[in-house]
Structures are given as structure tokens and as C-alpha cells.
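Give me C-alpha cells for this 294-residue protein.
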Amino acid sequence: MGSNAMPSKRTALILVLLAFVSRPAFAQVDLTGEWSPRVYNTHMDIGDYTGIPVNEPGRLRAESWHPDQLDLPENLCRPHPIDIGLRVSVSQLRITTELDNDTKQPVGLRLHVAWQEPEQVIYMDGRPHPSANAPHKWSGFSTGHWERNTLVYTTTHLKEAYLTRTGVPKSERAEVTTRVHRYGNLLTIIFIINDPAYLTAPYIRESSWIFDPTQIIPPFPCEISPDGTIIGAGKVPSFMPGRNDILADFATEYGIPLEGALGGEETLYPEYIKKMKTMKVAPRTSTEHYRRAQ
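Here you go.
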């Protein structure tokens, strides 16, 4: 009895393991449906690079950025890269299953965001990322897998864009690792951004949504007025190096040293608080105050 029972138990265990392994990689947790955002950090002040491990080239580009650049004709219908589009309003989110065109079998998930209607396909069928010379897109190219109940996917081939809406840049070499976790009707997404061109360490941010099956995402038609914009033809608002006269306003208003407001990897750690106490608060140098970047 004992010798005959052992093989049957072993066989049963093998069958269970095979069934688990053969389970579709994109069916661990149901993420599909309509998700309503819980936006709590949509605005940033000019000169606020706090929490960003930006390097010197990145800071130089950010300091040359002017908020009126958002009104240039070529920028009016410019979409956000997907990692920013999922954080700013209006960021209603729809997640659907992506099917293969020929076999109609599931190959991953598709994310659709309300603002400028960017879409991102997360392939979970084992396909590799394309060549480094492949075209870059606003949504990039993403492949994912499950780590227990968390969807983890990596995005490459993104276009050059902004890391934040205050002009901190993100290069086309950036790679974003995204972790998506559902807990009941709450969806949390964490973005981990690595950019060898403008960052010296990963930049991490997160957002959350509530399941809302009654949500309807309307179309987002973007049209440029035939009368143009408030920016005259041939003009590109910007600041020359060292001439950004609104850069210190954020630091002054919140009573922190300008050096601390301008970011950098050192400012991410608790030890930096002691160093800030030895610094002087930034003096106000601007008469024209741009409170918000959007």
C-alpha cells in the first residue's frame, strides 16, 4: 500500500505544478476595467526639483525652461509620456486585454488614459524588446510579468520628454519599471525611472485609482486654433544660463535654501536635513511670479 501510494502522490503533485506553470502569465489578478484617479499632486512650482536626483546637465536644461513653452503651437497637442500621463489630471484610466490580431489569444494588457489619449500595450507573451534603433514612441515598448499579485513591466523606447511639468528633462535613453498592484477596488501604480543622461539615481513616484465601472472616458480631440496662440511666430520662451529670474521663488516662499530646492541625489537622504540647517534661505529676486507650471 505504501509503495503504491507514493507514486500517485508524486504524480498528483507534478500535475498541480504543471497546471500552475501553464496558467496564462497575464491572468494572475484581474486589472481590467475603468479606474478613477485619486489625484493629489498635479501642480508643481517653477524651481521645484525637490526629490529628483537630477545631474548638472539635467538641471541646466530645466533652468532654461519657461512655462510659456506650453503655449507653443507645436506643444499644444503634444501628448505626455505614459508615466506622466498616468499622474496628471485628467488621468482616468481604462485597462483592457490585448489580443493577438491573428489568433485572438491574449498577449497582454492595454492601458488607455484620458488626457491626450495615450495608449500603452504591455506584452506578456515572452517577446523581446526591439533593437535600440527601433522607433521611439510616447508610450514606448513594454513587456511585463507577474511577481505574486503585482504586475511588473519595463518600458523602453520612449521619446525625449519632461520628467516633471517644471521642465526637468527625461532623455530617450530612459527606462521605466512600473509596478501595478490591485487591493480590492484600489489600484496603485509605482514608477521607477532610470535615465543615464539626466539622473544619477532612480526617480520614484506613485499614483492611485479607485475601480469605477460607471466611468465614461470621453474623446479628447485636440485642435490648434487657426488664429494661433498667445506666443508670437518665431518666438520660443526660455531663459539663458544664469538668467532665470523666477527660479528662486519656490525656495523663498517655502523657506528652504535654493540649493536644496534644485534637487540632486544628495537631497534625497535624511542626512541632508542637517546640511540644510547650515544654509541660507534663498532671497527673492523675481518681481514676476509664476506660481504654477500648468
